[in-house]
User: Fold this.
Amino acid sequence: MLSGPHRSQGGMGGQVMRGIVITLLGALLCLLAPAKAELLVSISKSQQRIAVTVDGAETYRWPVSTGVRGHETPTGSFRPIRLERHWYSRQYSLTPMPWSMFFHRGYAMHGTMEVTNLGRAASHGCVRLRLDNAAILYSLVRRHGMGNTKVVVMDGALPAPVDATPMAEVETPPAVDAAEKSFASAQVYREADAYRASVGSDEAQILRERAAWLRGLDRKYGFAR
Assistant:
């Protein structure tokens, strides 16, 4: 019959072995668990193109408009810092910026109705996309999380896609749903009217010109009031 000390040592050895087994099983489960997909958004200022890569596979490639000379889009590697479904530029006369994804200070990727400019530099520093493409990208960033999304803005060209990724047609008008029509209409003018009361005559003139421009877009894309 074993003495008390021998039984105690055997019990301690069993506990140690069980601890090792549990630790190894935990490590194995971590290795087997699927890694959270990374979202890479690459923007070429020379090509005026954006490539969206999900977990190593390029999924989309679209035309964009980055900043013109004197208002260049910053080059570098960034993480999204804020998402805004509805946003208006306070710096540029309450210009609508739907599906905004801010990645550096006041710079954002966002939707635009000025689709005829896509494919060439035309903005004051933001990255403009077609409304439907901006909505897709916004959804992807929300799904993967800002911490798992990387935005790379480069001066050079994008890497050649492995497969022939179909490009969005620059000339194709955006698919605008009822929510977007509402967003680009009455709410803009209500906010502009409220802001106009607090600004000088020069700024008020700018806002009136901006309102006239928005009404022209209403007519162009068939927005109803």
Observations:
- The chain has five helices and eleven strands.
- The two ends are 95 Å apart (CA to CA).
- The chain has two domains: 39-174, 176-225.
- Residues 176-225 form one domain.
